[in-house]
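Progress note, sequence design subtask.
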């Protein structure tokens, strides 16, 4: 920080405790047996919703009318899947699944939310629109009406650093007495990473027309990658398995998820390795081999590229 430079704290007439609004995702989860969603005030104009892993034995669905008082919601889906239906003149269906970041503006349109059976886990950041320009640097970032229209209710693969941050918000790596301070600071980092991901996504170009069946098949490809991390990945096999020609598989997958099939497989493998290290795994070579890597140095370089640390450095920091 240069001498004399001051950080501007948003003066939006709000305190952290004023952000009492709850997202439809939070309210829907609250009705599921065993779910324990928790809301945390963070900083002025910012709030967190933490939905630790819970299991629903059936699909749950509910409508939610537009709410002019609703803050913006950056939703990080750590596990599970579901569907959001935007009740416009021509309804729009938005799939949300594991590792995805979704931006919601519930003030604009009626929605219906569905959560699929199985495990669900989410971290949501709530932001008052009037606080956003100050927290994101004023004129250096503007979430204008045009940008909102383009990215509103869109989903994309979350950066791995955001995934790691979301996991640490659920289980802060600090003593209990410092949890609130950690979450308050992490909320601002969450906002920066999420806004950056959405802003970069908005600049992506799209060329290929995909129908409803294509979208379902490509979502199936994504789930298959997540569930078969240690198996060799061949486009020819995926193309045959999901009845997609290779061009549509490669181009359509990248168009929807903003990364190639191979890049997403790498993303999932290093994310899973990161989870193992968090759980106490310390044998880097064994973890690399388990993930299908034959070259441990390549695994270490890939991990560092995504997390900014080598596996060894990360493990030492966790001790």
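Output:
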């Amino acid at each position: 920080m240069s001498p004399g430079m001051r950080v501007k704290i948003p003066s939006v007439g709000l305190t952290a405790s004023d952000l009492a609004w709850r997202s439809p995702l939070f309210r829907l989860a609250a009705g599921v047996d065993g779910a324990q969603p928790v809301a945390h005030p963070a900083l002025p104009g910012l709030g967190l919703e933490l939905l630790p892993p819970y299991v629903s034995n059936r699909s749950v669905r509910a409508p939610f009318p537009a709410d002019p008082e609703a803050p913006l919601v950056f939703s990080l889906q750590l596990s599970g899947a579901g569907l959001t239906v935007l009740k416009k003149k021509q309804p729009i269906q938005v799939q949300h699944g594991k590792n995805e970041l979704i931006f919601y503006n519930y003030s604009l349109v009626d929605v219906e939310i569905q959560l699929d059976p199985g495990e669900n886990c989410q971290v949501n950041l709530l932001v008052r629109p009037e606080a956003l320009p100050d927290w994101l640097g004023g004129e250096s970032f503007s979430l204008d009406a045009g940008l909102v229209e383009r990215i509103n209710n869109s989903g994309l693969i979350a950066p791995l650093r955001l995934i790691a941050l979301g996991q640490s918000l659920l289980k802060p790596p600090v003593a209990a007495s410092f949890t609130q301070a950690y979450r308050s600071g992490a909320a601002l980092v969450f906002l920066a990473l999420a806004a950056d991901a959405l802003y970069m996504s908005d600049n992506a170009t799209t060329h290929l027309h995909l129908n409803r069946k294509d979208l379902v098949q490509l979502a199936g490809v994504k789930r298959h990658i997540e569930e078969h991390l240690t198996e060799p990945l061949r486009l020819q096999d995926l193309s045959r398995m999901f009845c997609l020609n290779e061009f549509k598989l490669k181009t359509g997958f990248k168009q929807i998820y903003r990364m190639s099939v191979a890049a997403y497989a790498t993303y999932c493998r290093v994310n899973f390795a990161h989870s193992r290290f968090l759980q106490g795994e310390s044998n880097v070579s064994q973890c690399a081999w388990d993930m299908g890597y034959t070259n441990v140095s390549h695994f270490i370089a890939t991990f560092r590229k995504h997390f900014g640390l080598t596996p060894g450095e990360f493990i030492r920091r966790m001790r």
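The longest helix spans residues 179-202. Work on this subtask will continue into the next period as scheduled.
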